[in-house]
Write a structure and sequence with these properties.
Blueprint: H1 2-13, E1 18-22, E2 33-37, H2 41-46, H3 61-64
Antiparallel strand pairs: 1-2
Length: 77
């Protein structure tokens, strides 16, 4: 129980990465702005993916691995 309480305390005080994308909808050839908070560029460049649409260490993996939301109109992201 002590280990579980310690883990819970560690997870509840950690600051998690936050990604904001503006605009939230748009055509595939329109510009978008991605704001990353609570995560240093160095971390993105050296840490492996923990899941999602790509594996390994890829600094731009978030961008090149983007996929449309299931059920969305073709050409939208």
């Amino acid at each position: 129980m002590l280990v579980r309480d310690s883990l819970h305390r560690t997870l509840s005080t950690r600051v998690w990465p936050l990604l904001l994308v503006k605009p939230t909808r748009g055509l595939v050839d329109e510009k978008l702005k991605v704001i990353v908070r609570n995560l240093s560029p160095r971390t993105v460049a050296k840490d492996a993916s923990m899941g999602g649409t790509y594996k390994g260490v890829e600094a731009m993996g978030l961008m090149w691995s983007m996929q449309p939301v299931p059920g969305s109109r073709k050409g939208l992201r």
